[in-house]
C-alpha cells in the first residue's frame, strides 16, 4: 500500500511538467511577436517556471517520505 501512495504522489510531477512546457511555448511566442519585451517576458517566465518546478520537487519528496515513513 505504501508503494501505491508513493506512486500517486509522484504523479504530481506531471502537472508542473506540463505547466512549464506550456509556459515555455507561450513565452517563445510572445518574444517572437514582441522582441523588444524579451527581457521582461523572460524574467516572468523564469519566476513562473521556478514555482512550477518547486511543486514538482515537493511531489517527489512527498512520494519518498511516504515510502520511508
Tags for this model:
69 residues, F1FO ATP Synthase
Give a description of the structure.
By secondary structure, the protein is mainly alpha-helical. The protein has a single domain, classed as F1FO ATP Synthase, CATH 1.20.20.10. It has three helices and no strands. α1 packs antiparallel against α3 and α2 runs antiparallel to α3. The mean pLDDT is 88.
CATH class category = Mainly Alpha
Uncertain regions: pLDDT < 50 for 5+ in a row? none
Distance between the termini: 12 Å
Q: Give the C-alpha Rg.
A: 16 Å
Report the total helices. 3
Number of strand segments: 0
As a percent range, the share of helical residues equals over 70%
CATH architecture: Up-down Bundle
| Strand composition percent | under 5%
Q: Main β-sheet, in a few words?
A: none
Count of the domains: 1
Class based on secondary structure composition and strand pairing: mainly alpha
Q: Please, what is the oligomeric state? A: single chain
* CATH fold assignment: F1FO ATP Synthase
> How would you name the CATH homologous superfamily?
F1F0 ATP synthase subunit C
What is the helix/strand order? HHH
